[in-house]
């Protein structure tokens, strides 16, 4: 009888302990889903991948779903059709949308990169490069109307080169095929993004001779943006998102390129770690990664000047019309 009583008592005590443990365990917080459409997959966007890899979005209670949409037009279509909540794309796209008479403007709320991300690559090794060496040469440029092409032309004109008269300018090659066209023998110079520029240099297919990012100055090259209606309805979410981005920007600013490369490597399976490190270091050294999410007015005006110079600015848009810095300033 005593044995049965003792056994029953122990079972009851165990059950009470288990119940107590269950009651004391805090309920797991449900993460809020946020869908990002990024214009391309690029080491240029390192802070975005850091925010994902280091769990900064999750720390803010966000479950971020990242989709690469491969092109500005497709990215904006995803955002405008509610296929994405937030877009990572060039700020010029918000100007194009606004010029078309949108009733729900796309608002730039957090800047990620603050320079152009392309480099001038020469087929042959050039010692003591000067920009006038491009005159009379075949130049394989970027797609007309895109920010790389506009920034590229802006830099060329800055150095006294008319891209449409002083060069044999090729602009009819799709973005995805520019590198292959150059590798196949087209052009004496080419404007390339990383990591392709560094890969070509490592493989002896080309030589980096200049940076368009350094030459074109600070511009809101890539920003996080959302429809005005989404921002009004989900202000707290956008604030949490911006906070995570800022954490990542600060981490990138304070961390060496080798550690950054290791953190973002899972997002670039086809790129060797040493190349990722080289690219990150190059972008860090020229200040391409914004150190905070604030898009300032001088950058906005510089962007429109570059677009205007290229003949691609549909109309000049006031800074406060398409830029909201309230959240970024609060986060900072």
TrEMBL record:
PROSITE patterns: PROKAR_LIPOPROTEIN (PS51257). Residues 1-21 form the signal peptide. GO terms for cellular component: periplasmic space. Keywords: Signal. Pfam families: NMT1_2. It is found in: Periplasm. Belongs to the bacterial solute-binding protein SsuA/TauA family. This is ABC transporter substrate-binding protein. It comes from Neobacillus notoginsengisoli.
């Amino acid at each position: 009888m005593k044995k049965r009583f003792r056994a029953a008592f122990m079972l009851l005590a165990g059950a009470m302990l288990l119940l107590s443990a269950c009651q004391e365990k805090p309920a797991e917080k449900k993460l809020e889903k946020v869908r990002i459409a990024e214009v391309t997959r690029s080491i240029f966007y390192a802070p975005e991948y850091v925010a994902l890899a280091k769990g900064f979005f999750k720390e803010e209670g966000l479950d971020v779903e990242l989709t690469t949409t491969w092109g500005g037009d497709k990215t904006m279509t995803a955002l405008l059709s509610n296929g994405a909540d937030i877009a990572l794309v060039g700020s010029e796209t918000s100007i194009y949308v606004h010029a078309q008479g949108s009733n729900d403007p796309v608002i730039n709320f957090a800047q990620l990169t603050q320079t152009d991300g392309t480099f001038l690559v020469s087929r042959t090794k050039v010692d003591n490069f000067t920009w006038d060496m491009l005159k009379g040469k075949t130049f394989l440029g970027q797609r007309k109307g895109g920010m790389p092409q506009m920034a590229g032309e802006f830099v060329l004109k800055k150095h006294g080169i008319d891209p449409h008269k002083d060069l044999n300018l090729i602009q009819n090659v799709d973005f995805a095929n520019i590198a292959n066209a150059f590798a196949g023998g087209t052009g004496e110079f080419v404007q390339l993004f990383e990591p392709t520029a560094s890969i070509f240099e490592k493989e002896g297919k080309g030589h980096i001779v200049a940076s368009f990012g350094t030459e074109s100055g600070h511009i809101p090259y890539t920003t996080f943006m959302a429809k005005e209606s989404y921002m009004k309805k989900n202000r707290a979410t956008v604030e949490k998102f911006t906070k995570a981005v800022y954490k990542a920007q600060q981490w990138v600013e304070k961390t060496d390129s080798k550690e950054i490369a290791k953190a973002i490597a899972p997002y670039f399976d086809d790129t060797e770690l040493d190349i990722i490190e080289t690219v990150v270091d190059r972008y860090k050294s020229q200040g391409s990664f914004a150190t905070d999410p604030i898009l300032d007015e001088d950058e906005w005006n510089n962007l429109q000047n570059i677009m205007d110079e290229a003949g691609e600015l549909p109309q000049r848009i006031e800074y406060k019309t398409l830029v909201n810095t309230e959240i970024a300033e609060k986060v900072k």
